[in-house]
Amino acid sequence: FDSNFYYNAISYIREKTLHVGQTFIFTHKFALLKDFSMMFKEHTNRYTIHRTLNAPTIKNEENLIGQYHDEYAYLFKQIYDFVKSPPSDTSEYLQYPNIARRVLEGFLTFKLPSSKPLMDKVLELEQGRNTAPGRAVMRLLNNHSHLRIISGSDLADDIDSIAILPDTLYHLMEFIRFHDRRHYDTLAKLCDAQYDAEG
């Protein structure tokens, strides 16, 4: 949707549901969730659908979404929790490369607000250093965020690379922490009551 059509759609939905007893709205668009949450405030129950053991489960909305109306903080928490305790079943990994890319895009846009490509922004922040986090972030941009799993093809090596995702996402967190410690510590404390910036 462009912005005009988007707001027309919101107005249409609100107008058509004013006199109904209950409405269910499913969306993957964070702006829509935020706008309806603010529009109806205490009259909503909000949930998220998660993949658990390769099946969808409905959970109460994360506090980071409800309190801050902020997708970035919520996505950061998804990666933070994954790094702290990776799922034992690698089939659970498939959703994380795209989440990681969105976290990285958010961080780089905040750090270097320009129209440069993401890779150029990473190189600018790294300033010629050849660090493990820098290499992992470049690999994430090159490969993991568009994971292809087509067996029997020349792309089949991507299946193997999913196994190193915990290491890649650990380095993504290290990349963010190195380039903005205060930003990282603030988000980590929101994600984890046990977080200790010194430890």
Helix content: 55-70%
Model regions low in confidence, pLDDT < 50 over at least 5 residues: 146-160
Strand content: 5-15%
**Strand order of the main beta sheet, please?**
1-2
Rounded average pLDDT? 82
Q: Give the end-to-end Cα distance, rounded to a whole number of Å.
A: 45 Å
Give, in order, the helices and strands. HHEEHHHHHHHH
Helix/strand/pairing category: mainly alpha
Overall outline: globular
Work out the radius of gyration.
Answer: 19 Å
Mind describing the biggest β-sheet? 2 strands, antiparallel
**Annotation, overall tally of beta strands:** 2
Q: What is the count of DSSP helices, taking H or I runs of 4+ residues?
A: 10
Task: Summarize the entry for a quick read.
The chain is mainly alpha-helical and 199 residues long. It has helices spanning 3-16, 30-40, 63-68, 71-84, 96-111, 118-126, 132-142, 157-161, 165-179, 181-191; strands spanning 47-52, 55-60.
